[in-house]
């Protein structure tokens, strides 16, 4: 019996793991190939698709999805772009660090990577809205005005969240 994506999604929202597995099996390969085309890295492409399905399962009762296939591809595209941005920022950050270090000092580089990992973990611990605004500002390189417009909030609110995130993160970098 060929069940529609919409029906499988409804069943998944009712905690039907088999229906979710059918949805996964139906779309996994196409999403993987789509991610691979964008990321050019097999492991990263698999990770992105796994994240998409993990999020779909964990938020299945909250999400209001009208077109499952469109949702899956849009979410996969967003995750791929996020991954590419993160990789670009990491590369830029590492290049600047190498220039700063000048020589190949292993101890300094290990400390730098540990600090970078600590910072990334602490960013994930920020309150949801603060984290979102911080990432939009620092990773997506949006202005406060652009962020305010996209989130339908005031620029003062954006400034507040960025200030709070920097205060919390600054303590992290100094402590580690």
From TrEMBL:
SUPFAM superfamilies the UniProt entry points to: Sigma2 domain of RNA polymerase sigma factors, Sigma3 and sigma4 domains of RNA polymerase sigma factors
Domain RNA polymerase sigma factor 70 region 4 type: 119-169
Molecular function in Gene Ontology: DNA binding; sigma factor activity
GO biological process, one term: DNA-templated transcription initiation
Superkingdom classification of source: Bacteria
UniProt record similarity statement: Belongs to the sigma-70 factor family. ECF subfamily.
Protein name, as recorded: RNA polymerase sigma-70 factor
């Amino acid at each position: 019996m060929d069940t529609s994506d919409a029906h499988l999604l409804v069943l998944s929202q009712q905690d039907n793991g088999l229906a979710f597995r059918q949805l996964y099996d139906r779309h996994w390969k196409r999403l993987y190939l789509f991610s691979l085309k964008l990321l050019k890295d097999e492991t990263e492409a698999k990770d992105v698709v796994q994240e998409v399905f993990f999020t779909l399962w964990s938020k299945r009762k909250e999400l209001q999805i009208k077109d499952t296939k469109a949702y899956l591809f849009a979410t996969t595209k967003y995750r791929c772009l996020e991954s590419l941005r993160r990789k670009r920022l990491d590369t830029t950050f590492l290049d600047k660090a190498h220039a700063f270090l000048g020589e190949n000092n292993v101890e300094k580089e290990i400390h730098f990577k540990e600090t970078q990992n600590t910072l990334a973990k602490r960013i994930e611990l920020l309150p949801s809205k603060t984290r979102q605004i911080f990432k939009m500002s620092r990773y997506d390189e949006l202005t406060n005005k652009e962020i305010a417009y996209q989130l339908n909030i005031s620029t003062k609110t954006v400034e507040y969240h960025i200030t709070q995130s920097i205060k919390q993160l600054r303590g992290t970098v100094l402590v580690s």
